[in-house]
Amino acid sequence: MKLTRRQFIKITGASAAGVMALGLGIDLRPIKSHAQTLKIHYAKETTSICCYCAVGCGVIVHTGKAGAGKVINIEGDPDHPINEGALCSKGAALSQLVNNENRVTTPLYRAPYSTRWQKVSWDWALWQIALRVKKSRDASFTARNAKGQVVNRTNGIAHVGSAAIDNEECWLVQAMMRALGLVYIEHQARI
User: What is the set of domains in the chain, with CATH numbers?
Assistant: First the structure.
């Protein structure tokens, strides 16, 4: 066998490197390995929209099937046409918004001239809102204008919409506000 000087140096260098690697504790025997099961493996996936700004990025919310459906992970939706799976720093931290022990989960009411907030029930809060809307509408309702024309409107209530609802939801909100007789209606839908 003819062995050139260059081939000899290659073979001895590779052998020396192999012996040195084995001396450092590198084991070349095959090992068994397994992948860790993800925490979202058995979770329920629901698509939603980020609540922070008017861009309307799509998110996938993973909730645990056991228990009360606690949110365990939120990530960007790769199938959403706006963000294609990417999220800003606020959107990436959405799960902290949901899983926060300081989050207010019941309505709070502060009576006029009071200095403290008190917890009230949802039924009471929604009933009070309905009563006050009705009272404001009745107090400011105009059936006819100065010329005697039928206008059926109220100038005492205005509505500012949400940037995180789509056109169909926007139409429903607008229809309800117009049915109440509102004229001052603003909206900022962008999705």
Answer: 44-98 (3.30.200.210), 108-186 (no CATH)
